[in-house]
Structures are given as C-alpha cells and as structure tokens.
Write a structure and sequence with these properties.
It is a single chain. A hairpin with a 7-residue loop joins strand 8 and strand 9 (163-167). The two termini are 31 Å apart. The radius of gyration is 17 Å and the shape is globular. The longest helix is centred in the first third of the chain and has 11 residues, at 28-38. Helices cover 8% and strands 40% of the residues. Strands 1, 2, 3, 4, 5, 6, 7, 8, 9, 10, 11, 12 and 13 form a 13-stranded mixed beta sheet that branches. It has two helices and 13 strands, in the order βαβββββαβββββββ. By secondary structure, the chain is mainly β. The protein has helices at residues 28-38, 132-139; strands at residues 18-19, 59-66, 83-89, 95-100, 114-120, 126-129, 141-147, 150-155, 163-167, 173-179, 182-194, 201-210, 217-224. Helix 1 (28-38) runs antiparallel to helix 2 (132-139). The chain has one domain.
C-alpha cells in the first residue's frame, strides 16, 4: 500500500517552487545514509557507527516540474538494462543502481525482483556488489509480493515511501513510489553534500520522477537546515 507523502500539489512548469510541505517527510537518517554510503569506503566502517548519535537539522521540501530531465552528470548515467533508478552525488563519480532482475521466462525474478549494485565511474565504471554494511544500513531493498507479478518494495534509506514494483503496460519494469500525493516512477536521485568530516554535510537531496498525469519531470528537493 502506498503511504501518503508530505506534499499536496505540483507547481506548473516555470512557476516558483512550492515549499513548506508538511506531513510524513522522508527519514533524515535515511538521506544521511545515501551520502555516507556514497563515499565508497563505508564497507570499512564499524557497523556500530551506522547510527551516529547526532542532531540532524530540520528538513523542508519543495516541488518543481521541468520540461526536460536535468541530469547533473550525464556522463555517469548507468548503461545497465531494466534500471529502475540510480543515485548520483557530489562527493565522487560512483553511482548506485537499482535495477529489476528478470527471470528466465522474461518476467521479474520472483525471488529477487530488484538488485542493487555500484557502477564505479570514479575508476573504470565497472560493476561492484554492495557490501554487507551498505545493504543493511544504506542502499538495501526488501520486497514482498502483494499479488501476482507485483511486489511491495521498501528501501533502507527511504522507508517512509513504500513502493510497488511491477511490469508496466509496455512490458518494462517500473517502480512506483508516492511523491506529491501520487504514484510516480523515480528516475534518479542526486545528493549535494560536502565530505568535510566523518559525517558529510548534506546541503540538499533531489529526487527526479515522472508520472503519467504530469508533463515533464517532477523534482522533489529536500533541504537540511
């Protein structure tokens, strides 16, 4: 079941962003995990440090619509098949990829419909599996079938936005998550952060998504502080 997000309407293209949304905001610690894991070295961190006792700043968000998708790093878009969405960030060029996994018959793999992995663009762009720490505390995903050919999906770093995975009318895998009070397909996430210590300073996180009833690309920007 899709849980309600924390905003109510979309600003038309060209209008000023709408801010001050209220309700069930994404987890601040979840967004912190996006950036912390993005450093690429978290596999060497003691798991006891996964829940740092810090006071994170208050969050606020705004919604805007763009006629074209503003990709921050177009040279680092993963080339993999059946990509559901990916995560870029400002700390380095490495990208986390969430992709649907197909079964031999062509449908989604009933045992593991989503796989998550690195594309290490900071080196040669090779694929690398997530470490145990990354799966458990930052980028992991769990799924359970709510019906034939459909899965409820929960992301470790975004537990407040339970999604639904299935095959769309075109036969392509799609992940629908609630953004601005409607189910949308996330395209990619970009985290603007500064690695100025063990805990990076997060400036904002952008979630870019599309919806069948909205022209263009919706961006939900979450600010910290």
């Amino acid at each position: 079941m899709l849980r309600p997000p924390f905003s109510s309407s979309i600003s038309p293209p060209g209008d000023p962003p709408r801010s001050g949304a209220t309700g069930s905001a994404p987890s601040r610690r979840g967004f912190l995990a996006l950036v912390l894991a993005g450093l690429g070295g978290v596999a060497r961190v003691d798991p006891a440090a996964a829940e740092p006792m810090i006071e994170l700043p208050k969050m606020r968000s705004e919604i805007r619509v763009f006629p074209e998708l503003p990709v921050v790093r177009p040279q680092h878009v993963p080339p993999d098949a059946d990509v559901l969405f990916y995560v870029q960030h400002s700390i380095n060029d490495n990208v986390i990829v969430y992709a649907a996994k197909r079964a031999a018959a062509g449908g989604l793999d009933p045992g593991l419909p989503i796989e998550v992995f690195w594309r290490r663009f900071a080196t040669a762009g090779h694929r690398r599996a997530l470490s145990f720490f990354e799966r458990m505390f930052a980028f992991g995903v769990s799924s359970s079938p709510p019906g034939p050919g459909r899965w409820s999906v929960e992301l470790v770093s975004w537990r407040e936005r339970e999604g639904v995975l299935d095959l769309g009318p075109d036969g392509k895998p799609r992940l629908l998550v609630p953004i601005d009070n409607r189910p949308m397909r996330p395209v990619y996430v970009y985290a603007e952060a500064v690695a100025d210590g063990f805990i990076p300073t997060i400036r904002h996180v952008d979630v870019f998504a599309v919806a069948d009833d909205v022209k263009g690309f919706v961006r939900e920007r979450v600010y910290f502080g």
